[in-house]
Write a structure and sequence with these properties.
Blueprint: E1 16-19, E2 23-30, E3 34-39, E4 48-53, E5 61-76, E6 79-91, H1 95-108, E7 124-127, E8 130-133
């Protein structure tokens, strides 16, 4: 049974930014209620962080509570790497920031603007050094 309040969308182009103005992140999936990001260092769960968006949402600052953080082994062209994937829930989201998130999803996620069914996001599994969703 799906317990999420918002559909998640997978970006078809990179959505990036900085956590706490120092650490780069890349968005794995995004919804009106939060997003999953990938960072090179882990983020401490149960804390609130500040996110500054780059790209289409450049200049927008969002606040989010870190709900979970897990290490992931991913395969790259140069070999394998460990990255951290964190589930974030937006907090203190006003109408202006919500509209920015909606615009970002519409510009960066296929089907988000038309209301199509989003790509399902599920638990990942590492098989032979590559990350697969199951």
């Amino acid at each position: 049974m799906e317990r999420r309040r918002h559909f998640r969308h997978t970006p078809t182009r990179d959505i990036t930014g900085k956590v706490k103005s120092t650490m780069d992140f890349r968005v794995i999936d995004i919804s009106e209620g939060g997003m999953q990001v990938e960072t090179r260092l882990g983020l401490p769960p149960a804390t609130v962080c500040e996110l500054k968006l780059g790209g289409p949402g450049a200049g927008t600052t969002l606040r989010a509570e870190i709900k979970r953080c897990r290490a992931q082994l991913t395969k790259t062209d140069g070999g394998c790497k460990v990255a951290y994937r964190s589930g974030l829930e937006f907090v203190e989201l006003d109408d202006h920031r919500l509209e920015t998130i909606r615009r970002l999803m519409a510009e960066s996620c296929e089907g988000a603007a038309e209301g199509d069914a989003p790509v399902a996001v599920t638990q990942g599994r590492v098989v032979s050094g590559a990350l697969y969703t199951v």
